[in-house]
Amino acid sequence: MGPVERIQDNFARFLDSDIWHSFRTSPVTVVATVLAVVMIVAAVIAPLITPQDPFDPASLDLLDAFTAPVWTEDGLWRFPLGTDDQGRDLYSAILYGSRISIGVGFASVILSIIIGVTLGLIAGYVGGTTDAVIMRIADVQISFPALLVALLLNGVLRSVLPGSSHETLALVVIIFSIGMSIWPQFARTVRGSTMVEKSKEYVQAARVIGLSSRAIMFRHVLPNVMGPVLVIGTINLAIAVLLEATLSFLGVGVPPTEPSLGTLIRIGQDFLFSGEWWIVIFPGVFLALLVLSVNLLGDWLRDALNPKLR
Amino acid sequence: MIAFVIRRLFQALLVMLVVALIGFTMFRYVGDPVAQMVGQDTSLEDRAKLRQDLGLNDPVPLQFARFIGNTVQGKFGISYRIGRPVDELLADRLPATLELSLLAALFAIVVGVPLGVYTGLYPRRWLSHVFLTVSLIGISLPTFVIGILLILLFGVTLGWLPTFGRGETVDIGLWDTGLLTVSGWQSIIMPAFTLGMFQLALIMRLVRSEMLEVLRTDFVKFARARGLSNRAVHFGHALKNTLVPVITITGLQVGSLIAFAIITETVFQWPGMGLLFLQAIQFVDIPVMSTYLILVAFIFVAINLVVDLLYYVVDPRLRVERSGGGH
């Protein structure tokens, strides 16, 4: 079988599978997926579909400040969702902001998967004291809300790093804070499935032919325990995006020069009382829709892959 | 039972020690405590003297022991930013946060459990779908967006409720309460709703899924076969058996309420501990940060302990298993 046929074959099998059927028959999931994909794609190609670069001060005109959305009396077609206090087009700002939000979200989930899966794999495979130490740490951490852990890590990191590097390292700091605050979930799941896999025959066979523990763990056990990680990863993407938005809203997240959705909401909050509601509402709605659709997708994935519920 | 309690107490103590170590490390090694406490023009001799007075030249284990001793006595040092003892600052702020969190928890339980039972018993009714959809939105809407929407609607557009602060408070001994005045109640409605919304959705979905699972079990079928009334089956058999996870999650959620209060307090400028902590982070005010960490950890550990002990009361199976002398 050539590679093309193999792909076609796999695709046909996918179309024939339970999962595809469950997906197709759940309109909410289809809508949520379409919405999530559209939002993520729009964020990625933001420079191509927005009229201005909201981060470039040269493209802003203060005279445009506080333009209302287009369907109100004072609206302009140039600014479909209105502008903020600096004359930034909100539509552009939201897409550019969601770029940062989604980017930070993905990066922190990937970081937490790397940390969590590695530690979970080691804990489950090696067992004994190593297992006890790793899982105790995970237990303690998981009993604190991720927001608190992220805030603390953020605070400590910012106080350790010299002041001049805050702006440049802000993204790294926030990705690290979020990633480190959600790894225990992955570690727990992977440890559980690793302990199941460990006693299976293929692992014993690999041991008999003299493979190193590391090779067995990462080449043989790892692929078999990644399934649930995908589900938790999807749910945690929503959590990570929310965490980033929250940290930025609280003023300890990404620097104001590159506003994410949370920063936009933080800025917009100042104009609640003066009547410029659109500055805060649109980024808020966008963020909520993004999190909602990823959540729905994660919920469906969890149910679809859970044999207990079939 | 006693062995279990002792083991849990020991674990709790260990966690607190670890947290204290983190707090101590932050205090001792993040920045120089002496440089933070004195002005620019303090001479080197004065600094050295202060260093000696603070005991920063002693062996590190001794310093840690002293740190723990001070913490147990409630002496948390002096805030770098405000220049007042941290315990005073926190004592000022604690009532505001606790009143907010407890009211939010109460709201979440009182509304969440009945909604969960309803949606669990009648999963196909349209009202259940409405509740579920709303709860999903409640989970997905960020806390601060809910708060801002509420402010916009009830504070700005309708002008019914105050949008920031606690309103008038009454000092009753050690406690500074806002729950005895009309303006205090008006002020707490929106923050408590905002804070409780997420927990409400969580509790409701949890009760629902537990109910669905329990209703499918054999003992519920048997209860029905015995001709028990719906009421007895639903509340006596089904709901009772959903309580273990509900108690755990709700208990643990009280802790996260205190953490999420940071957001709510920021949105509504609620003068609680969360706001203090957030300002401490922005100004790298280490004594306040580490004290908040230790205090919140203490609350968490205490709640965890109580929840674990409650298990015993609620779930007789646990008692049997343990007293049977292990497996």
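qc> Residues 213-250 of chain A form the longest helix (38 residues).
qc> done
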